[in-house]
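Thread: quick sanity check before group meeting

JM: Hey all, I'm pulling together slides for Thursday and realized we never actually wrote out the predicted structure for the chain we discussed last week. Dropping the sequence here so it's in one place. If anyone has concerns about the input, flag it before I start.
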Amino acid sequence: MASDIDTLYRLSLAEFTDARNAMAKAAGAKGAAIKALEKPSAAAWAVNQLFWKQRRAYDKLIRASERVRAAHAQVLKGKAMDLRTLEAQHSAAVKDAAEEVRAILARVGDPATPATMKSVVDTLQALPGGGEPGRLTKALAPIGFGAFGALMKGAVSSKALADVVTFAPPKPKPDEVAEATKRHHARVRTRLHEVEAQTRKLSAALAIARGKHEKAEAIRASAEAAFQKTVADAKSTAADLARLEREARAADQERARLAAELR
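JM (edit): ok, ran it. Output follows.
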């Protein structure tokens, strides 16, 4: 059953509800619990996909987060720790994970809007947390590492503590720096091509919309002119009608008078 639920959270958002309901129906007595599973938000779904499809980036982020939390726990005990380096590594892991999420969203055609990406980054900064990995339903709020005091008492794993206590920040090798820069530039170029393609598409759509607007405006102006002419014609014909009716009444009155004189 757990593996079936994992499969559910790996589906697209469009497939989630129907798949969940079908699973609940097939589960019999356990169906109510499955039916209660909440559909993830867009940001939560995207971070879930990072766990399922880019586990390396996800695990790197979790390790960096756990090391920072462990370091803060040590600081609270009065020990000196290199927080700046650890937090810089965590920030880099968050940035790399966010780029992976952006790529995931691009591949499935979902817009990585600023609001969605902000929720994604907030959630990445808050990990680990929020329940079962890969099954988030809502974006998480980041917790400042300076506020970890109460959370860190007894909450740091022995492995994370061992990692940070023995941690000595390695000096990056030139080839590693070059490779990281190359990967970053590749991601930037990919994103640039996506934005350029989107810009071209929007520019074409804008040109079409402008042409339709100009045509509609010309039709409106022509219709307005025709309407004004029709109003003027109606006023003119109304005046002619009133004049002719007056003249007809006068002629009829004179006819009646002349006929009376002849009798």
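AS: nice. The chain is about 75% helix and 0% strand. Residues 40-170 form one domain.
JM: adding both to the slides.
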